[in-house]
Amino acid sequence: MLDARTLAIALVVTTLLSALMLQLASYGRMHLPGGRHWVVGLLLLAVTWGLMALRGVVPDVLSVLLANLLIFTAAVLLYAAMAEVVGLPPYPANLRWTAIIGGGGLSLAFFGGAIPMLMIFIVSLALTLLLVMSVRMLLRGATRMEAPARYAMGLWLGLCALILLVRTIGALVHPPASMQMTGPLHTLSMLAAQVIVLGCSLGFALMARETMVMELAQRATHDALTGAFNRYAFDPVGQAALTRLAREPGELSVLMLDIDHFKQINDDIGHLAGDEVLCEVARRIESLLRGGDMLARYGGEEFCILLPATGPAEALQVAERLRLAIASELFMLKGCSIKVTASIGVATVAEAMELKQLIGLADSALYGAKLAGRNRSCGPGLC
Ligand SMILES: Nc1nc2c(ncn2[C@@H]2O[C@H](COP(=O)(O)OP(=O)(O)OP(=O)(O)O)[C@@H](O)[C@H]2O)c(=O)[nH]1
Fold first, then answer.
1. What's the gap between Cα 243 and its chain centre?
2. Which residues span the membrane (predicted)?
C-alpha cells in the first residue's frame, strides 16, 4: 500500500525530472521564455516535497513551516514564469502581497499554537488565490483558437484551484488532528500533487513553445522596425489576389509609396530619428487603410500597399489621402518639427498577371511622381 511519505519521495523525483526536462529544452541557443523562473520554482518544490517526506523525522519548523513557505515562493516563481511567457509583469503587487500575507499568517499560526486546521486552511487558501491569479492572467485575452496551449493551461490551473478550494473547505469541515503524513487524505493529496506537477510542467512547456512559434512567425512576416508586413508576407498574398482575378472579375490596385529626400532627413537629424520617421509614416498609413488592405515595407524608405477590389479612381483617392496624412502634419522628432513628404505611384489591373509586373507598373508611376516634383500621387497617364 502506498503511503503519503513514499509518494512525497516519488514527487521529489517527478519534480526534479520535470525541472531537468525544461532545463534541457532551454539548452543551447534556444531560450525558453520564462524557463529559468519555472526551473527554479520546480527545484524549490522538490525541496518542499523532500521536507514533507521527512515530517516527523526533522523538526516541524523545517518540515511544516519552511516547506510551506517554500511552496508560496515556488508558486510566485511559477506565476512569474508564465507571466514572462505571455509578456506581462512577473511580480504584480497583488501576487506579492498574497504570498507575503499567506506566509506571515502561516508563521503566526505555527508559532502561536500550530493548530493543524488553521495552518492547512491558511496554506490552501493562499495557494488557491495564487492559482486564481494565474488563471486570470492566462485566460484574459487568450482565445482557444489563437493560443490553445495557454488556454488549456488556464483551464488546467483552474481545475487545480478548484481542488485546492475543496481542500480549504475540507480543513474547516473535517479538521485534521495533526500535520503528520498519515491517513488517506495525505495520500490523496500527494497523488494529486503528482498529477498537478506533471500537468503544469507539460502545459508550461507547450505554452512556452506556442509563444516562441508565434514570435518566430511574427518575425518572419513583419518588418522589425515599423511592424508592417515584409515582402515575404506581402508577395504571396498579392500574387494570390492577382491569380483570383482570372476566376473572379474585379479590380486590384497597388500603391508604391516612397518618402521624399529621405537621405537628407537622415543626414540632417540622424539615422535613429530617420527610423522614427519610417515608423510614424507606417502608423499614419496603417490608420487610414481598410480591413482587407495590406501594408508592407518593401525597401529602405519604400512602402507597398495592396488594395483589393479597388479601381483606378478610388486607388488614386486613397493615395492622395495617404500623401496628405504624411505631408499635412509635421513630424515631431528630437524636440523639433520637420516636414516629411512622400511620392506615390498607383497601378490597377483587372486581369491576372505576375505580381512583379504590377509592382513594375506602380514603380514606373512612382518614378513619374518623383520626376514631376515629388509630394504627389501618379497613376497611369495621370500625374
Ligand atoms: N534611418 C533609416 N534610413 C534608411 C533605412 N533604410 C534605408 N535608409 C536610407 O534611405 C535613404 C534612401 O535614399 P535615396 O534612395 O537616395 O532616396 P531619397 O533620399 O529618399 O531621395 P528620393 O527618393 O529621390 O526622394 C538612404 O540614405 C538609406 O540609407 C532605415 O531602415 N532607416
1. 35
2. 6-26, 38-58, 64-82, 94-112, 151-173, 185-208
What CA–CA distance (Å, rounded) separates 246 from 21? 53
Q: Is 254 in the pocket of ligand 1 (CB under 6 A)?
A: no
- Residue 263 Cβ contacting ligand 1 at under 6 Å: yes
Torsion of CA 8, 12, 15, 19, to 10 degrees: 170
- Determine contact, residues 126/118, Cβ cutoff 8 Å: no
In this structure, the strands spanning 342-349 and 377-378 are parallel
Atom of ligand 1 nearest to the CA of 273: 1
- In the chain, the domains with their CATH numbers are 4-220 (1.20.1070), 231-378 (3.30.70.270)
Q: Which residue spans within 33-167 are E strands per DSSP?
A: none
Q: pLDDT digit string (tens) for 234-292?
A: 999 999 999 999 898 899 999 999 999 999 999 988 999 999 999 999 999 999 999 99
Note the pLDDT tens digit of each residue in 63-107.
999 999 999 999 999 999 999 999 999 999 999 999 999 999 999
pLDDT surpassing 90 at residue 171: no
